[in-house]
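Exercise: predict the fold of this chain.
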Amino acid sequence: MRPEALALHRDSVVVDGHCDSVLELLGFGFDGQDAQPRDLAVRGSRGHADIPRLLDGGVTAQVFALFTDDKYVPDAAAHTRRMLEAMEALFERTDRVRRALSARDVEEAKAAGRLAAFLGIEGGEAIGESLAELRGFYARGVRLMGLTWNRRNALGRGAAAEGTGGLTDFGRKVVAEMERLGMIVDASHLSDEALTDLLAVARRPVVASHSNSRAVRDHRRNLTDAQAEGIAATGGLVAVTFAGIFVDEAPEKVCLARLLDHVDRLVSVVGTDHVGLGSDFDGFLDKNGTVLPDCTGLPLLTEALLDRGYAPEEVRAVLGGNWMRVIRDVLG
C-alpha cells in the first residue's frame, strides 16, 4: 500500500455495520451447520473476523449481529439471549474490546486502541410479538435491529418470503418504540413492500446495514436507486456488503473493484454522506466470490477508494463518518 493511503486508514474512524462472527463464537453455522466454537478474543485462521484481526484491519467499531437461523426460530428469544450472554462473557474476558452504547464509546475506543462493539439483532423473531422483549434487549445493550431476515415474521415480510405484504401493524409499533428508545432501525432483508412501509413511518435515520445496489447487481437483497434515496432522506445510510452473491452474479467477477462499482452507483444517487460499510463477514460463503479474504484487508479498500478519485474526507465519511453521524443522531 501507498504510505499515505495506509496513514489515512489508520487515522480514520472505521465502522463496520454488520458481521455474523457471534455465530462463530458459539459454533452456530449461519448455513444451518454447527461447527467448533471459535474464541473471538484470539487471532484465528478460520473465518473472516476476530478481535485481533479487526484491530489489525483498522476497525474502530463493529456491529455484531445476533442472528437466528431457521432451526432456532421456535426458540428465538432464548437463542438470542445465549448469543448475548456469549458476547457479554467476551467483554469480560479481554480488554481489547468494549461494549458500545454511544458515539462517545467509539471515540474513546479509538483513542485507546480498542474495538468498540455494538450489539444488533438480525430478525425480529427475537422479540416475537412483544414490545417488552424489545425493551429487555435494549436494557441489555442491543442498539440496532433488523426488522426481518429473509423470512416473514410478526413484524413483516422478509425479502425471500413468498406472497405479498410489507410491515404489519405490530411492525409499525416496533419501529415507533425503537425510535423512542434510541435504537437504529435496520432495513436490510426487508421485502420491497416492507421497506416502502418503513420509509413511510420512519421519523429517525434508517440504515441498510448490509445491502448493495440493485442497479449493479440485480438481486432482491440489494436496493433500487429509489429505495436508497428514501433511506438517505431519513438521514440514514446504505452500508455496502462484501457478500459475493450481492456483489456480482458471477463469482469469478467478485473483487474489490466490483464492490466499488456499487459504491460509485450509490454515491451517484445519494452522495458520499449516505454510504458506509457493512461487510457481513462470517455471514457468507467464499464460494460465491471474495472481495477481501478477511477483515485485515480493509486498508486496501481505503486505497481503492482513493484510486477511484474520492477525496480523503469523502473516504473518511464512507469508512465510518456517516455511521458516526447516524449513531450520534439515534444513540447519542
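Check your answer against the key: The longest strand covers residues 115-122.
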